[in-house]
Amino acid sequence: MNTTMKTTMRFKLVNTLSLFFITAAPLATAAVDVTKTRDGYTLEQSQTYSSATGYKELLGGDSVTSWWAENISRTMLTAVLPNRLPASTFETDLDEWPLKLEAVTADTHLGEITLSEAINDPRAAVKAMIILHKGKVVFETYPGLHPANSHLWASVAKPTAALLIEQLIDEGKLNDSDRVDTYLPDFAGTALGETTVQQLLDMVPGSDTHDSPSTRRDPDSVATRYYRAEFDEAYKDGKVETVREILQGAGRTGPAGERFEYSSGITQMLVFIAEAVTNQSWSDAFDERVWSHVRADGALQVHLAPDGMAMAHGIVSSRLRDLARYGLLYTPYWSQVADKQVVSDAAMARIVNAEHNREAYAKGDGQRFTPLLGEAPVANSRQWDAIYADGGMFKGGLFGQGLYVSPEEGIVIAYYSTAPASPLHRFVRPLSKALTQE
């Protein structure tokens, strides 16, 4: 391939990536300099930003979003899941790895740059990043956040909703092939009542619940309505709906199982099912089954809608190291951070076996996620955005949050940022390969 062809292909790919970010957050503005707020906010800033945390305002990715991502419990009901065990102590391997990893390059919307350049570019708004290899910390930086501060996971939290379902499958309390209305009788006769548990896990519901650039711009879309409901914002005629009511009214757009259509509402269906089967609030069930077994530094904050619904699709907060601990639960190194195995071998096998969803991924939102990541995965699977042939797993968040896990190698890459366009997603695969080539 000649230089001109390479340049042209790179231009198209980077512009596709830029288009993804621009359309994914239509109100996005320039990223803020997060280093200036690392040590906190003034009284005036906190009062101003607190009063401006509506659904549309938070899509902007600017100062309001950045403040809110660190202070959600000031504006929303919050279930606090305490760290019940003594915190685990990570071993470190920081003699050579940081310099090697900082030199890793990726082709991003900011150009072909090193990890060091990406982290230090104000446009990336990187607040914190940690990399584990075989359970050891090999890289860690906090340019815009103190290590003890919690931060929004955003959609990185979606696998938490799937994890409770995986446990219930392991226990024989439900099956992948079961219909939703088996557990949620109030969904009988609705489009989502006909879908199966696996179709929810893989986000192939065939319903008008799609969360996309176009649905976020449409004030009458199901996606916009369920997001507004979470912020206690009226839809029409002063009526404030609940997410459950909105999803009960979702319509059928095609056969389930055919297209990957990303949707936070579909994640919330898993929350409702877990609550019905366990007869516990989702927060209590996750605390008992998962978080109480993690040797965390701090509490996990599960933020709630006005009706008390746990917003496990993304409105979850924790310290960065605790997000990394969560990622390590999906590896053979789980015993370094937990007192029991909470992600079973059987669950892991179901997650990484993404071949069944390859066609649906390619037809649907795989066309958005592949440019985001820079390397095409096999497919999405069970609330993870991408599964690679070598077992790598990725889940991203709207404003540049990310969690990448390479199970067998014990690699976990976790990061927080608040940027309309974060380059860090493009680094997860090159970083993972750099670690495994040693």
Automatic annotation (TrEMBL):
Residues 128-429 form the Beta-lactamase-related domain. It comes from the Bacteria. Residues 1-30 form the signal peptide. The lineage of its organism: Bacteria, Pseudomonadati, Pseudomonadota, Gammaproteobacteria, Oceanospirillales. This is Class A beta-lactamase-related serine hydrolase. PANTHER family: BETA-LACTAMASE-RELATED, BETA-LACTAMASE-RELATED DOMAIN-CONTAINING PROTEIN. GO terms for molecular function: hydrolase activity. Keywords: Hydrolase, Signal.
